[in-house]
Structures are given as C-alpha cells and as structure tokens.
UniProtKB/TrEMBL annotation:
Comp. bias (Polar residues): 88-97
Region of interest (Disordered), residue spans: 86-115
Matching SUPFAM superfamilies: Subtilisin-like
Family matches, as PANTHER family: CEREVISIN-RELATED, PEPTIDASE S8
Stated name of the protein: S8 family serine peptidase
Domain of life: Archaea
Record-annotated active site: 141, 178, 583
Family of this protein: Belongs to the peptidase S8 family.
C-alpha cells in the first residue's frame, strides 16, 4: 500500500479511484479496452466479451466499445476499468532474504525465534485447540508460489485462479513474492516438519492472483472477491488498498460497485480482512478523503504493530503490540491491530539486525533484477517508453518491449537511451581474464528492427584507484551484438576490446554509463589493462533498446542467460525473508479468523468478527485510534 509521501489518484468520469497495490506506491491509468458494467439483472450481455461475470452481484467486467455498451439493453451503467502499477517501498526492498543454500538448512519450528508475531499471538498454544481444519481462506494478491515447501500442503491448486489476462496460471508473474509472504503468514505448514508456521496451517488456501507483474486492475480484484465468496471461502485476505480517495467520489460508480461486492461477501459468510494502509494517515480526521477497500462496507480493517529491538540492542526498544511507524490509524477506521512489523530506520545499514522487527515468512528469490526506463542527460526532454517484465512459466523469461526515444534534433544517440533487460549478480566470481563467456538465448518479435540482443555486459570490481580502499567498479560492454532470432549468442568481454562498439567503462552498471554526465558512452574511459587479471566478475547484464535515432521499436524475449555455463535465468527459488506493512498485519487476522471459524463451524462472518473484536483490547498506555477494538488476541477469541 502507498507510503505517506507518494499519493497518486485518478479522476475518472466524475468518480475518483486511488491506486490499488500490494503494500506499495502506485500510479493509476484507465484501461480503454475493459469496462466495469452494472447490469439491469435481466438478460445476458449479448455482443459483449465478458471477462468476469461476477455471479451474485449485478456487475461484470467486459471488453467492448463504449458504443456497444450504450446500445446494450442489459447494461445500466459503466465506467472504464483501472490499471494499477506498483513499486516496492524502500524498507522492504532493503530487507534481506535467506539465500537458497541457507533456506535448505533452515529448520524452523512453530514458535521459532524469528517468528515473533506467532509467539506474541500465542499461535503454538492456539494450535492445541485448532489449526484451522475445515476452513478455507482466499488470498487476493500477487500469486502464491506453489513450489514453496511450506505452502504446497495447504494450497488448493484446483481452486486457485489467475484473474488477469496474461495467460499464466495462479503462480506469481513479475518477480513479486508479496502474495507468497502473505499466504505464509496465514497458512504455512512448516514444510511438514521444518520451515515457518502460519496461523492456520490446516486451512484450505485458495490463491486468487490479481497482479500481472507490477500491475492489477480494479475489475480483477472485484471478480476475485466474488469468486472467493462463491467457492465458500470463510475468509478473504486483501493486503492491498488505495489512499487517498476523495470521499465525494466514493458515492459514485466505483464506490457503489465496491460496496455492493463487499456486502455480498459478508452476507454469504466471507469475512474480508483488509490492510488499513501504510501512509501514517489519520483516517478519522482526513477531511474528505477515504481509504479503500478497508473503509468500504463490512471490511475488517487491520492496522499494523511491531517491535523495535527484537533480538538486538536498539536504542529505543518497543514491544510487539506498539503501533508501527507507517500504519494508518483512526478509531472508527480501524477494526483491529495486529503484528505487521516495524523498523528503526536509523539502524538500516549499520550492521544491526534491524530486520528482525519485520515479519519473517515465506518468500522466493530470483536470480536477476529487471532494469528498464529511459536514461541519459536528455532523458526528460526525449523520453522513451521501454519496459522489461518477467514472462513465461514461473518467470522463466524476460520480455522487453516499447519505443526508444526519438527526435530530429541534432543530439548524440546516447543523450537519451530507452532500454530494458536484466542484471544478475555473480557470487564467487573469478578473476577476470576477458575470456569469460556469457551465453544468451532469445527470440525477437516483429517490433524489433534489428538483430539482437543489443547489449551484453560483464560487471567487475577492480582494485581501488582513489586511495579510499573501496573497489573500483567497471563495466565491459558490447553495444551491438548482431545475431538472428532464436539463436544462441556466446559473447566474451574480449570481443569489445578495440574491435567494435563498446569497451570498458568505469561505472557500476550500464544505466550509470548513460546517467553519469562525466562518462561519454561513445568513448570508453577505461582499458583492458585496468581489469584483466586485476578485477573480479560481480555480475552480468543483458539488454535491448536504443538511443535517439537507433530504433523505432523494441520487442524481444530472453529465454536463457548463462555465465560460464551456469544458467542465470532460472525460475523462482523458494526461501524465507522479512517484510513489513499492514499487508502483513491483515493475514495475521485472516489466519485468526480461520481458527475461530474452525472452532465454531456454525459462525457466520459477523460472528467471527465479533469474536475477534470481543477478545481484543487496547494495550495499556496506547491510543485506541491505532487498534479499533484492540490488539488481536487469538486465545481469548477461541
């Protein structure tokens, strides 16, 4: 959900809808190809391509022209669907994960030291009563990795669905492990004996993926809620949200649609556990603004708490029930407070294990980091639009598409360069000889004008040159790799030593070569003698794109990248890591709700919520505005 300094919302036909995202900052844009329609409840939507029917409510998501919608006798009203783009907040981006090797050696158990949230909620003791048997929880998020050993047991693959139009299945697409972490907080079953433990490890977990890479749509989220209800989910977790939304817009089409769907969920017995947001905002006294969906009808809105100094010597320690620095609050806007993690920002980068105060659970790692955008001193004057995204089964490929910058002005091609691709770290890299081989497999689409890949690079760390003892970063790069589509290119850095475009640059990445005004991309500022036998290989980069006047379009997919024979472009690898946010607090409540339902099978959604609220209390000395009914108390709720 968006942080306090980044608030983006979109005005649409008199209604205002904020960006919806998993725990992060967002931008929003209308989709011209899809619409959310309110039906008249009679007849079928003939002549319209129905994407989501949403049985049980009088709404649907369709692909059609506006004129066709106006002609339809079954359509009462409609508005464009909204496409959402997100980016990770800085705190989570700096949090570590276990390496795959460490993960294979990790033998955590219920009540493990790293899981302070489960300990503080007395989850091991609650499991003496129930572990969530006979319940079902839906996770509406970025996808749940089915190969994670701690999630393979509870995950119902048969019911799990992809609500996007990207053609994949329910598994994550886009390298985002947010949904996998959320799912673990709810239902991880410690891999049958070692790993992490969720609050309700014996619930039936249904994955509803609504994000494709960094993007989601409002219509897909609504459809996922309805689907969760119709497969008899007792709880649906939505660790996503939008803020700020002007209150006057909520009464229009989008607000009416949201409230109708949420009311339907409650009536049919599905409790909605929803993150309250990470804006540090007082939702009780924010004028004409509102946060959705957590302030929508029937929502269980969850604020976040967390410790400071858990297992380390923090200057200002705080208990696990203290409000997190980022959490939204407001007495009537919050239903419960629950563990979501906190952070001492001043401790980041000091070597202290500050991340212990975040929530530890299931994640995955990917070998590469996507890079895309427009770079160069004139990038703002001549912007391009090139993006890179993980594609293929379980993120096995990287696709780069878009349009590089263009101008008729007399400027160098490298003054504005649009490109995308992927960078890989190389651990334990060899001393550089110039003959190390990077092998790239790829296919080009009709929009890629010339042979590809365009640029291949090797990142290096050499001896200090400025006396401060820090390594000097170098990039050996070839600007023009020319091979036909569906072939395998084997490239060595020595290819760029004086026999073609490229060369050796003193920089930490290809992007820095273009961004740094002190570097001339047309004239290498380092040489072979600076690195051969002296530098260590630290990474590999593979990119496509072009500078001004170089290409009109980019369309290429990398299907394989290897360094010295070792495949770098590999699928997601299950592991464990830390995150913080109300996105982590909501699933702690969702898991608790599953336990209450398991212990009381006859309870409806309102009764489950009532049990959680009655058991909760506001910690002594703390403001009720951060807790609503109070801090989550699972044992008393049971």
């Amino acid at each position: 959900m968006p942080d306090v300094n980044r608030r983006t919302f979109l005005t649409l036909s008199g209604a205002v809808l904020g960006g919806i995202a998993t725990g992060t900052t967002v931008t929003a844009a209308t989709r011209t190809d899809r619409f959310i329609v309110q039906t008249k409840g009679k007849g079928k939507l003939r002549g319209l391509d129905v994407v989501h029917e949403m049985p049980g409510v009088k709404f649907a998501v369709v692909e059609a022209s506006e004129s066709a919608l106006r002609r339809s006798k079954a359509v009462k009203a409609f508005e464009p669907d909204v496409e959402i783009t997100l980016s990770e907040p800085a705190t989570n981006a700096q949090a570590p994960t276990f390496s795959p090797g460490d993960a294979s050696d990790y033998e955590g158990q219920p009540g493990d030291f790293l899981q302070w949230d489960k300990s503080d909620l007395n989850v091991p003791e609650a499991h003496e009563t129930t572990e969530g048997e006979g319940t079902r929880v839906a996770v509406i998020d970025s996808g749940v990795l089915e190969t994670h050993p701690d999630l393979a047991g509870p995950l119902n693959i048969g019911l799990s669905m992809n609500f996007t139009d990207d053609g994949g299945d329910h598994n994550p697409v886009g390298g985002d492990d947010h949904g996998t972490h959320v799912a673990g907080i709810i239902a991880a079953d410690n891999g049958g004996g070692s790993g992490v433990n969720g609050t309700a490890p014996k619930t039936d977990l249904v994955d509803c993926r609504v994000f494709s890479g960094p993007s989601a749509s409002f219509g897909d989220i609504l459809a996922a809620i309805v689907y969760s209800v119709n497969v008899d989910a007792d709880v649906a977790n939505l660790s996503l949200g939008a803020y700020p939304v002007p209150r006057q817009g909520l009464g229009s089409f989008y607000g009416k649609t949201l409230n109708s769907v949420m009311t339907y969920a409650n009536k049919e017995g599905t409790l909605l556990a929803i993150a309250a947001g990470n804006d540090s905002a007082d939702l009780q006294h924010d004028g004409n603004l509102i946060s959705i969906p957590n302030e929508g009808a029937q929502a269980v809105s969850v604020a976040a708490t967390g410790p400071i100094g858990y297992g380390w010597d923090a200057e200002d320690e705080a208990p696990a029930h203290s409000p997190a620095f980022y959490t939204n609050y407001g007495t009537n806007a919050i239903t419960l407070g629950a563990p979501g993690g906190d952070a001492d920002l001043a401790a980041i980068g000091t070597g202290a294990p500050w991340f212990n105060d975040l929530v530890f659970n299931t994640v995955f790692v990917h070998g590469g980091s996507l890079v895309s955008g427009t770079f160069g001193p004139n990038a703002e004057d001549y912007p391009g639009d090139v993006t890179a995204s993980w594609t293929g089964s379980y993120d096995g490929n990287v696709t780069v598409q878009g349009t590089p910058p263009y101008t008729t002005d007399s400027v160098p091609w490298y003054s504005s360069v649009g490109f995308g691709g992927v960078e890989f770290g190389v651990t334990g890299g060899p001393t550089f000889t110039g003959g190390e081989t990077v092998t790239v497999d790829y296919t080009t689409g009709a929009g890629h004008e010339r042979l590809a890949p365009d640029w291949i690079s090797i990142y290096l760390a050499g001896p200090p040159v400025d006396g401060d003892g820090n390594p000097t970063n170098y990039v050996a790069v070839d600007w023009r790799v020319s091979e036909s589509s569906e072939t395998s290119v084997a490239w060595t850095a020595s290819d760029s030593f004086g026999d073609g475009p490229g060369g050796v640059f003193e920089a930490s990445s290809v992007a820095e070569i273009f961004e740094n005004p002190d570097i001339d991309p047309s004239s290498p500022d380092a040489s072979e003698s600076d690195i051969v036998g002296k530098a260590t290989v630290t990474g590999v980069g593979v990119f496509s794109g072009g500078g001004i006047g170089a290409d009109e379009a980019v369309d290429i997919t990398y299907t394989g990248v290897a360094f010295e024979g070792g495949d770098l472009l590999i699928p997601q690898t299950p592991t464990y890591g830390w995150k913080a946010g109300t996105s982590m607090a909501a699933p702690n409540v969702a898991g608790a709700a599953a336990l209450v339902k398991s212990a009381n099978p006859g309870y409806n959604a309102n009764q489950v919520e009532s049990a959680l609220k009655r058991a909760a209390s506001v910690p002594s000395g703390y403001d009720k505005a951060y807790y609503g009914s109070g801090y989550l108390n699972i044992l008393d709720a049971l």
